[in-house]
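Table S2 (continued). Query chain:
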Amino acid sequence: MISPEDRFRRVYSANFEAMLAYAMRRVEQAEDASDIVAETFLVAWRRSRELPPDDEVTLWLYGVARRVLANHHRGGARRERLGERLRQRITSLIAVDPGHDVPQRLAVRAALARLPEADREVLMLTVWEGLQPREVAEVVGLSAGAVRTRLSRARARLRDLVGDDPGGAGHVLDVLTATVPEEGR
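Corresponding output:
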């Protein structure tokens, strides 16, 4: 008697190419086809003790692949709708910010880009995301004290890059001067 695992191996090797061809003809991206085939054979593996007889197994696999493909297409449509909602939300947020293209804001962004990644991340998590140093510490995997030190140094480096002169009206200092509420150490 052949074990379910050995039978699955035989079914897999006999049907892999047919399932891949089936999926390739029904999706736009080859990566999607390989995902569909992998999911199809995952179902077959999980149900290896219940596989139909050899003369019916290929048709059974086509049925599984068809359902996997339908799920894939439904998921793609959901992802597309979600992506569209996110694009609309982002567009509305950007439109609300009249200072989006203020030269000083652009200067701050350029200066941020010149900071080391670790400094930039600590600074942005603290100021833009509103996290406390202890929360930033958890996100980046450092101690709260190390985050406070890194934050202080990052602000000093940013001030050196941007300068302290607030300039005229409309100057954006949000990253340089935003206060961080005191927290318990």
